[in-house]
Write a structure and sequence with these properties.
9-stranded mixed beta sheet, elongated, about 575 residues, alpha+beta, 4 domains, about 50% helix, Serine Threonine Protein Phosphatase 5, Tetratricopeptide repeat
Length: about 575
């Protein structure tokens, strides 16, 4: 899951050092590749912290209103219930006209007209509804004619034709004078010089004006009355296009729609750039942020990103073209960063610094000349990625990993030679006992060697895990698999050890002269050795998931202990 939030800023009484210009408000815009529950609270926390520092910040409603007015708005969402209600109002208007109450019909028309104007691009999508919109609008023409207002009736007829650019009203629903007035308006429209020229990237996309399908891009819609029209470009016919408002006057009006940008931008509940993948986000978020800044408008941009669920990044951009002026990385959790971490980031940006505040001590980062120049694995002065374990610890971990693996493997390698030595010892006793004492001691020494080497190997591997394991936001699947294997090895070790051969009549470490006792010692010794080796193998396997669970920077695991008269409780909580 990746999140980006873009902020554009204006400072009224306080100007950050990193943004020396005045008269610009900070605008918060989120960009993400997934649906993040912490998005809104994080945006609010950032805005509040900046306001507390004297920085002017666009309110969420004002920013959305400005963008939707000057850029694009989401397609209207009209429920079937609302459409049924609209049809009922249309019918009521007609009934009032039939009953000889044109004044009442005009009042009812105002109520129905408000819905028509706000959702015209949705109402006109279906021919039946589009015809109903035209009919209802013409009821107003009839009502105005009956009240003795022919000039107002003609104006109303022009508005009807602007709502529904083409199409005929229902037959036998309107008196002749209404239809004649509509014909005069249509004739006057042919002399209009207003036009819409709509282009898109890519071309060949469907174009709707006020919801009516008029063709494909590029297209020019001519003979339009002056006024505002809702333009939608839909490259995917299964998705509603965003609504671009076009003010048509006497000259042609150009509308260009970047389908990719339209698919990314969202304005509800917050200004949001939503991308299909992290790669697409990296490729387009800076350019898209600049486009948003032009529409709102503003000159200074702050980019807040979450490269992973544990890190939030705030990046201040300014100038034309935008260049990075400050950067701050802070820790985050499932519900976003704490207010304290946001305050640290705000101070860093105000001072014009670029710092990674997720480490102790914080690390200075190169700001770079271009936005996005510092990646999530920015290398500090020693060239080592700041997001990884420090170089010295990592090298130490690899060294311990190599030593531990070699030692533990040596323990397993000794199994074969020790088995052959045991066989020679027993054969020597069967042959009369010559050289049996030296062979017994060799067998014992090899057993001690197996225990020592495997113990050293296991200890080295356990110590290496916190230093060598890569950092992850949560415990990876292979760590859980390792833990499962560790549990299996540990269970086998215990079970195999407790079921080992019973002790012989004499101690296996003392001189054994009986071949039967020697065979018992050998069998018991082999079982004990295997149990020890598997137990030592289980230790590093079990350590891997424990490192991820209890590593503070990644897991946020909190142990808890509760004790009462009725008993006790031990547990852990956090992200697993």
């Amino acid at each position: 899951m990746r999140l980006r939030v873009l902020l554009t800023v204006l400072s009224a009484s306080f100007v950050p050092k990193a943004a020396a210009q005045t008269g610009d408000h900070w605008l918060i815009v989120a960009t993400t590749t997934s649906d993040d529950s912490w998005l809104e609270p994080t945006e609010s926390s950032v805005r509040e912290e900046l306001t507390d520092h004297g920085v002017g910040v666009w309110s969420r409603d004002n920013a959305v209103t400005r963008f939707e007015a000057n850029g694009s708005a989401p397609a209207s969402q009209v429920t079937e219930a609302a459409i049924r209600e609209w049809f009922a109002r249309s019918k009521a208007i007609l009934e009032s006209l039939v009953q000889g109450a044109p004044a009442k019909a005009l009042d009812q028309l105002n109520e129905a007209g408000a819905l028509s104007l706000s959702t015209i691009e949705e109402l006109n999508r279906e021919p039946e509804r589009s015809q109903k919109v035209l009919d209802t609008c013409l009821y107003g023409v009839r009502a105005l004619l009956e009240t003795g207002s022919p000039s107002s009736a003609e104006t109303q007829a022009r508005e009807c034709r602007k709502l529904v650019l083409h199409g005929e009203p229902s037959a036998h629903m309107h008196p002749p004078q209404v239809l004649e007035m509509l014909d005069r308006v249509d004739a006057a429209r042919t002399r209009q010089t207003g036009a819409l020229r709509v282009e898109s990237k890519p071309s060949g996309c469907a174009v709707r004006v006020n919801g009516l399908m008029l063709g494909e891009t590029p297209i020019e819609v001519r003979n339009l009355f002056p006024g505002r029209y809702a333009v939608q470009v839909e490259c995917d016919l299964d998705r509603r296009g965003r609504v671009h408002s076009a003010d048509v006057k006497a000259a042609p009006t150009d509308v260009f729609v970047d389908s990719r940008f339209d698919d990314a931008i969202m304005t509800r509940p917050v200004l949001l750039l939503h991308y299909a993948s992290s790669l697409e986000e990296e490729q387009h978020r800076n350019a898209d942020a600049v486009e948003i800044a032009k529409i709102v408008p503003t000159d200074i941009i702050m980019l807040l990103s979450a490269p992973d669920p544990t890190v939030v990044e705030l990046e201040l951009l300014g100038g034309t073209p935008p260049k990075r002026e400050a950067l701050a990385r802070i820790r985050s959790g499932p519900h976003g960063p704490t207010r304290g971490h946001v305050a640290l980031a705000a101070h860093t940006l105000i001072d014009g610094n670029c710092m990674d505040l997720t480490t102790l001590p914080p690390v200075m980062l190169p700001c770079g000349d271009e936005p996005g120049a510092v990646s999530a694995n920015t290398r500090p002065e020693d060239g080592w990625p700041a997001a990884r374990t420090p170089r010295g610890q990592f090298i130490s971990g690899l060294t311990l990993l190599g030593v531990g693996s070699a030692s533990l493997l040596s323990g397993y390698v000794l199994i074969g030679p020790r088995a052959r030595t045991a066989e020679d010892w027993v054969n020597a006793l069967d042959a009369g006992g010559q050289e049996s004492a030296s062979l017994q001691q060799k067998w014992l020494n090899m057993g001690n060697g197996m225990i020592v080497t495997s113990s050293v190997g296991a200890a080295a591997l356990v110590a290496a895990m916190p230093l060598a394991l890569p950092k992850r936001a949560r415990t990876p699947w292979w760590a859980w698999l390792s833990g499962g294997l560790g549990v299996g090895f540990a269970a086998f070790s215990v079970a195999y050890g407790v079921t080992a051969e019973a002790k012989p009549n004499v101690s296996c470490t003392s001189l054994v002269n009986d071949a039967t006792d020697a065979r018992t010692c050998v069998k018991r010794g082999e079982q004990i050795s295997v149990a020890v080796l598997t137990g030592m193998t289980a230790a590093p396997l079990l350590t891997i998931p424990l490192v991820y669970l209890f590593r503070p920077s990644d897991a946020h695991i909190t142990p808890s202990v509760e004790v009462s008269r009725s008993g006790g409780y031990v547990g852990i909580r956090g992200e697993f």
